[in-house]
Amino acid sequence: MKSFLRNLMQFIFLHILYKLAPRLMKFFMYKYLKSGIKLFSSTLPRDQKTFLNILVLNPERFMQDIESLTMVKGVNLLSLDSSIQYKLNSLFLPHNLSFKIDQYMNFNRHTKRLVECLADILKQAAIDFDIHCILSPSFQYRQDFPYQSAAKIAAINYFVIFKEYLKDPVIKNQFTTEYKIKQYKFLGSKMFLANQNLQEIMIDAGVANKDKLSVVGSPRIDNIYRKLMKENFTNITPTVTLFSFMHCSGGVRLNDPLEHFSYDPNDGFYNLFYETHKSLIGLALSNLHISFNIKLKYEGEWLKNIEQIALNEFKTNLASIPNLKVSAEGNVHDLMMASNLIISFNSTTVIETLLLQRPLLIPIFAEASGKYKDHVFFSKYLDRFNCAFSSQEFKLKIQDAIDSKFAHTQKTECPADMVKEYIDSFDGHSADKIINEIKEIVL
What we know:
It is built from 16 helices and 13 strands. By secondary structure, it is of the alpha/beta class. The chain has two domains: 2-218 and 427-442, Rossmann fold; 233-423, 3-Layer(aba) Sandwich (Rossmann fold), CATH 3.40.50.2000. The strands form two sheets. The chain has a seven-stranded mixed beta sheet, sandwiched between helices. A six-stranded parallel beta sheet has the order 10-9-8-11-12-13, with helices on both faces. Strand 11, helix 13 (348-355) and strand 12 form a beta-alpha-beta unit. Helix 10 (270-286) packs across helix 11 (301-314). The longest helix has 21 residues, at 109-129.
């Protein structure tokens, strides 16, 4: 019934309302888009004529990068509500079809109408809000494809800060091939990348030419630099934090490639996930005086998997464990600073933990030392870090840290060659570099 009503509404809009009164419909669509544009943050009182005004798409996907950009003087960030973006797209695109980037380079009747309408709407938004450019965290999001094309028609510069920068050398060829197969193309003005490895992937996959790419490091890492320069954080409650990971970590493709988790113990990092989370739940139950965190990127299915482990292994409701918090909420860097021991696997949080000079433990067992050892990140640096090579060693190392009141936990600085390889530089100026390059193009 929902699908029928949705298709009926789209038919009425396209074949009656938009066909008979296109200018009126564009007027209402612009009013709707305008209602979703909010001033995110600025460093000075708002004065649009003297600021660089940036319209940000998908702001919820790169909040820490945005936080860093707000620290640059003379910048206004205006965010567009993502739900409005989806709804405007859905007025023109059939819900039973999938539209790839090539259909926004060589228009069909569906994408042509959408892009032309969006171009007119974005032109008006640029006038009303004095918008100089558009910024997104990725070139891959399908909801953004029409906005890339519309911005080009409307003569509005379109930029990307590519947030998914952890493309370790072990999966470089895999992602180059995948990007080629999906025929991704970046249609904007400039894409900002964290490292040279990513630039090579983009060029080799044909996503963009070198002149449209700029290696500037990661703005979210600027936040770490500032914390180290300014903050002395002392946590009150001893805390162990696990930055959780998915079964498809490290570029592993599950039996169902559209899923992040599997019910098959032979699929992906199923057993590594199960054993690390089982261990942490058990340690929380036996160390009630210690605070434990399991940080997720999102909840839903991810949280359900962990809840099931608690029920299977301890006959316990996860929410009933008083000293264990499992959540997607909270600032990652603040959580790191408040932790006495951080556990991470195949994640940017490995780099960030090292940069913050916090004690780190990396689990390298189950599939990570067997079936999928070729999908383990930072492999050439692991001998410098504190790793656990079995589930028993994993639990023992955490319990020993607790018993010693974390007095002997190993703090390892991020090696200089690792910094260069993954984030190019650690100087607190990635956001400045991005804004300076944008200004050179648009002002």
